[in-house]
Design goal:
heterodimer, A: 381 residues, mainly alpha, two-stranded antiparallel sheet, 71% helix, 2% strand, B: 42 residues, 93% helix
Chain lengths: 381, 42
């Protein structure tokens, strides 16, 4: 009896697949040992190993004698991401239900911080285009700077980018690294005096009517200016409306917990379908990881510089420049970073609520940014 | 370096940032307006 079947697959492993096993192991290690976005990086790491096993049954395969077999991860990818971007969009319902826009509604000026901090996205798109990436790939890479994993996945998938796996890994990895990246970027453009600047906080009540009207108004305005953003903004705001309407508390809890957890669980392992060795192991992946880091740094710096300029025009109502960096969306890590840095500069300096306001503004601005990028290509025809 | 891509990226940056500021600016103005209406009713 021939025993070839025992090692035929072992001998079929390619060096690129071995690299992917290492990548998978590193992602799992980062998730478990370092606590970096474990809900996403752990499934992605494990999925990266599964899809790169020779003739893996989680991907569609064709073999003589059996014919075509359908793999579960490829099916999840085709149905949940490729066909409709359903997974990242549905995740927005959960995210919207988790966010309290109260601090932002009591200080609407901070909406501008969220808008400004998206500048890093477009600067990175320019750098990626200059480095020779196709415009759609450059746009997909720049969106890593949205600091919003689902938006990155959705935009890169919609634009048909060849690098969706690398983009997803970069987006989630750097989100977890915000506590390291942001202090470095902020210190490049601020002095200790800037960081110590205090901001008074007056807790203003926000009416229930305003809280209910807000998600509707945001969806309509974003939809009218950038129709391509309706899926992103609309589902984010739908989740928030469920939270704020006051009559769907059970659904709100389900969206925040069960729905978000289920989608997150499947999203990580599903994205692994785009991490096959032949698509992932190439120089461009390293460039994308580098550009993702640049996008996060530029976002933070542009946010700070914008607030410094804004302060020139509003000398009586100055904003701590670091709050501008919180406009990058990565919620709530960025707010915590700003609070910590403020207290390092002055132990009595409390910026948390202002940073939270800018941070949730960034959450809206990042999905709008995704929408306007898609709209740009839609307008090109 | 692809000059056409660079110019297109620059155009995207202009349109994108303008779009984001218009959307967020309009939302901020409407929120201020709604707050004023709420305060007047109180």
């Amino acid at each position: 009896m021939s025993l070839n079947f025992l090692w035929v697959n072992l001998l079929a492993i390619t060096p690129q697949q071995i690299v992917m096993y290492v990548v998978g192991a590193v992602l799992i290690w980062l998730a478990i040992e370092k606590g970096f976005e474990p809900a996403l990086l752990m499934p992605m790491g494990f999925g990266a190993i599964l899809v790169n096993l020779p003739l893996s049954g989680v991907m569609n395969q064709f073999s003589e004698g059996v014919g075509e077999t359908h793999g579960i991860i490829q099916w999840l990818f085709e149905v949940g991401i490729e066909a409709s971007e359903a997974m990242p969009i549905l995740l927005f319902i959960g995210i919207g239900a988790m966010i309290d826009f109260g601090p932002l509604l009591s200080n609407p000026k901070l909406f501008l911080c969220g808008a400004a901090a998206q500048g890093g996205i477009f600067l990175t798109i320019m750098i990626a285009a200059a480095l020779g990436f196709d415009l759609k790939d450059a746009a997909s890479i720049g969106i890593i700077g949205a600091a919003d994993g689902p938006t990155s996945i959705l935009v890169s998938q919609t634009l048909g980018s060849n690098y969706i796996g690398a983009i997803a890994v970069a987006a989630y990895s750097y989100m977890a690294l915000v506590p390291i990246i942001q202090p470095f970027a902020i210190k490049l453009v601020t002095t200790k005096k800037d960081r110590a600047m205090r901001m008074p906080y007056r807790a203003q009540g926000v009416s229930k009517r305003l809280r209910i009207m807000f998600p509707i108004v945001v969806s309509v305005i974003a939809g009218l200016v950038a129709p391509s953003s309706v899926a992103l903004v609309g589902f984010l705001m739908f989740g928030n409306l469920i939270r704020e309407c006051g009559v769907l508390s059970s659904l709100s809890q389900t969206a925040q917990n069960e729905l978000a957890n289920l989608i997150t669980l499947l999203l990580g392992i599903t994205i692994a379908a785009s991490m096959k060795a032949d698509q992932f192991v190439r120089w461009e992946t390293l460039m994308i990881m580098g550009l993702g880091l640049v996008a996060f740094i530029l976002d933070s710096m542009v946010g700070v510089i914008f607030v410094k300029i804004l302060n020139i025009f509003t000398p009586k109502n100055k904003i701590n420049p670091m709050v501008g960096a919180a406009g990058i969306s990565a919620f709530p890590m960025s707010s915590r970073v700003i609070e910590k840095m403020g207290q390092e500069a002055d132990s009595q300096n409390h910026l948390l609520m202002h940073a939270v306001a800018a941070n949730v503004s960034g959450q809206i601005a990042s999905v709008v940014a995704g929408g306007v990028v898609l709209q740009y290509f839609a307008n090109m025809g | 370096m692809n000059f056409d891509n660079m110019m297109a990226a620059l155009e995207m940056m202009g349109q994108g940032m303008l779009g984001i500021f218009v959307v967020l600016g309009m939302i901020a103005l409407l929120v201020c307006l709604m707050q004023k209406i709420d305060n007047r009713k109180k």
